[in-house]
Amino acid sequence: MKKYSYPDSCGHFGPYGGKFVPETLIPVLIELEKTYLRCSRNRDFKTEFHALLKDYTGRPTPLYPAEKLNAMLKGPKIYLKREDLCHTGAHKINNALGQVLLAREMGKKRIIAETGAGQHGVATASAAARFGFECVIYMGEIDMKRQAPNVTRMKLLGADVRPVLTGQKTLKEAVSAAIRDWVASSADSHYVLGSALGPHPFPMIVRDFQSVIGKEARSQILKAEGRLPDMLVACVGGGSNSIGLFHPFLKDTKVEMTGVEAGGTGATLGMHAARFFGGRIGILQGTRSYVLQDIDGQIALTHSVSAGLDYAAVGPEHAMLHDMKRVNYVKVSDAKAVRAFRLLCRIEGIIPALESSHAVAWVIKNAAKLKGKLLIVNLSGRGDKDVDQVVSFMGKK
Ligand SMILES: *Cc1c(COP(=O)(O)O)cnc(C)c1O
């Protein structure tokens, strides 16, 4: 792991990644990649991006010692990376701002995005409003119901939220609708993809914009503890908050990494969204990775109590890190995530996103094995959006 320089120039992470898109999108992706590479080396662009992260988003987010949780668990020493304190409530804003700046550089006038939990939609709608872009957000009808407050927020921010009624009516169908729009509108529109997914260069761009999480965490833990952590823990939906935390530590071979997937209600296909527990290599929405699919290669149904983790594919870089055994991928059930959600509310006075609660739940479950270890757990977002979901989940039990 001394040398880590992925993706290659064609967007491959080992056998994963790539650009599996309609021919018309190839020049658009090339334009995006060129613009990104130019901007990422440009001092003015970087200064503007970092000023936004600081004064608009509220970065750096704190690295918070979870003393009450630590005292209760009597196991690891846990710090929470407080992405829940970002403007708009999750890490998503880091990437949305970066990509909206790229859209402006490319002279686009319109922003398209998809959203599952609604967090990426809210972040993109905010960034679009801030820079005066027209904004269209695709969202599955089911997700619109379970994340209703975020739909209202997007509308208040001036976005046109379009319900997607096909298939399972969740994130996968919303991504397809956004891609369909983009194929027709790419001359004047930029598609702000919300996770470390999709065709090259998206997984690289999203990772790099989110790496601010790991860069900050690294200097914060060195300052607080005088050493690197023993382990990083983050939930994995498409994989952006996790790769953002992990990436700046990948060369530190002694830092272990745990990615937590949604175990849902059981191990049977259709009951979860744990791609490394039953997924096979396949292509979904522009990239090759681990995909939950049936024996005929049809994309499987997925389930998670948290909309943000409910997706059939995982980002291609995670697929490679899984095969390299650099990151250990695990899963946590709906019930355990909800229990961790409630515990963090009561014991630390923090309402975490249900997505982030999966990471916390894994640590709670494994506290005895992690005794004495120094951990950074990414609290990817806040749970205001999830309170109705949690109440209804508790009602069912
Ligand atoms: C979207 C979201 C996730 C999952 O997406 P990743 O790309 O895997 O980070 C996790 N947590 C929160 C709070 C989210 O909004």
What is the terminal-to-terminal distance? 45 Å
Mean pLDDT: 96
Largest sheet: 6 strands, mixed
- Estimate what percentage of residues fall within beta strands: 15-25%
Structure description:
The chain is α/β, with parallel strands linked by helices and 397 residues long. The chain has two domains: 20-53 and 92-206, Rossmann fold; 59-89 and 211-396, Rossmann fold, CATH 3.40.50. It has helices at 26-40, 43-57, 67-73, 92-105, 119-130, 141-146, 148-156, 171-185, 202-210, 212-225, 240-246, 316-323, 334-348, 354-365, 387-396; strands at residues 12-13, 16-17, 63-65, 77-82, 110-115, 134-140, 160-164, 189-191, 231-235, 256-264, 280-284, 287-291, 328-333, 374-379. A six-stranded mixed beta sheet has the order 3-4-14-9-10-13, with helices on both faces. The chain has a four-stranded parallel beta sheet with strand order 7-6-5-8, with helices on both faces. It has a two-stranded antiparallel ribbon with strand order 1-2. It starts with 11 loop residues before the first strand and ends with a helix. The mean pLDDT is 96. Bound molecules: pyridoxal-5'-phosphate.
Tag the structure with descriptive keywords.
alpha/beta; binds pyridoxal-5'-phosphate; 14 strands; six-stranded mixed sheet; 42% helix; Rossmann fold; 2 domains; 397 residues; 18% strand; 15 helices
Short description:
With 397 residues, the protein is of the alpha/beta class. It is built from 15 helices and 14 strands.
Describe the SSE topology.
Elements: E1 12-13, E2 16-17, H1 26-40, H2 43-57, E3 63-65, H3 67-73, E4 77-82, H4 92-105, E5 110-115, H5 119-130, E6 134-140, H6 141-146, H7 148-156, E7 160-164, H8 171-185, E8 189-191, H9 202-210, H10 212-225, E9 231-235, H11 240-246, E10 256-264, E11 280-284, E12 287-291, H12 316-323, E13 328-333, H13 334-348, H14 354-365, E14 374-379, H15 387-396
Parallel strand pairs: 4-14, 5-6, 5-8, 6-7, 9-10, 9-14, 10-13
Antiparallel strand pairs: 1-2, 3-4, 11-12
Helix pairs in contact: 2-4, 4-5, 4-9, 5-7, 9-11, 10-11, 13-14
Pyridoxal-5'-phosphate binds at residues 90, 92, 117, 119-120, 195, 235-242, 308-309, 353, 355-356, 380-381.
